[in-house]
Amino acid sequence: MGGFFGVASKNDAVLDTFFGVDYHSHLGTRRAGLAAMDSELGMQRKIHKIENSPFRTKFEKILDEMEGKSVIGCISDSDAQPLLIRSNHGLYAICTIGIINNSDALVNQYLSFSGGHFGAMTTTGVTGINASELVAAMIDQKSDFAEGIKFAQDVIDGTASILILKEDGKLIAARDKVGRLPVLLGKREDGFCVSFEDFAYKKLGYEDYKELGPGEIVEISADGVEVLSAPRKKKKICAFLWSYYGYPTSCYEGVNVEIMRYRNGQIMAQRDKELGIAQDLDYVSGAPDSGTPHAIGYANESAVPFARPFIKYTPTWPRSFMPSNQKERSRVAKMKQIPVHDLIQGKKLLFVDDSIVRGTQLKETVDFLYENGAKEVHMRSACPPIMYGCKYLNFSRATSEMELISRATIMELEGEEGFKHLDEYSDAQTERGKKMRTAICEKLNFASLEFQTLEGIIKAIGLPADEVCTYCWNGKG
To answer: Are residues 21 and 155 in the same domain?
Structure first.
């Protein structure tokens, strides 16, 4: 994944952008960068790896290194950015969020007529091309930024939200063409900002100005915001923003993440009660951190006490998904778990996780609870079974759909024939659905397993179903 933040101000904007980017640290763990435009110093840029240390420590000296009243920055789980580009549009800095599935075709098409070139890297994608550089090459084929951005978004198979810092100090922000990801604007007396997360600018004294619509393109200066291209009609915002990777204090399309998660847990508890499932429990708990609010909603509705049978030791351990090796990630996750024995020994526990992707770390957590004396461990997923690898965003490390535990289990039960009946496997009331859940329970050592329904999670989000991307669950994006 990734996130960006930018400021156009009447005053120096480096510090605001430093904090604004830092507030997006939950969205990426590999690269981070800032670019600033100053009337005397010109365009400046700094990029650092943040794989083994947080953004703040790598950029703590930035106030001594950069100046500018217009600044952009980003956190990225993939490419180094912002990039500095000199083209027919002049000098500009660019950063992007999303994924390009047809990068090979776009590169080959561009090289076939342009006589140009790309910087090649051995660590990024099939083509080895930085995604932001590829987006810039698409933009530069048109006579102005707005037309170039619309062209880029139309030819890209995937998702591209774009933030540009121009040589004249103005910013251009564009939300991806169907609005899978948020882009929001904030206003303060000395200027405007653009952000993925709204709380990032509110903490800096900005107020809500507007949320860009799908494909909307705006130009931002310290004095105002000009719409360069109106929003498109089709919207498909990613449902995982609320169920998993969105920050709890954030609002997208007017819906707060934390509140949605409470509602989601409440709906799951209501359904379990209707079906008479897992009604004899001692405690409800959440798989930290994003599973916790779903669990609080479940506990509140079920009247079963919420508890934390283990605590994550976070002062010194890095985030568990940071190592690229699964074995290392699992070990870090296990080392962080400190048990509260009085809340585990002889207890019947129900855990709620934000999702079940591969199940590797989840099984180790459940084994850890049984090793510490748990009597039963029931599991609830706050979203439906994941049947498809996301082709619109890059927030998962899964490289194949067969890494998904739902798909892998279906293959074991029925072979490829089972993939013709994914809707049945998603439904807990069908025979296929029951068999998949039983098989996963046996594999991961759950006392029981259930998933939130598609209808349940859409109800919890509260937006029209046709405005929400549910591709991961039903293949409809």
So the answer is: yes
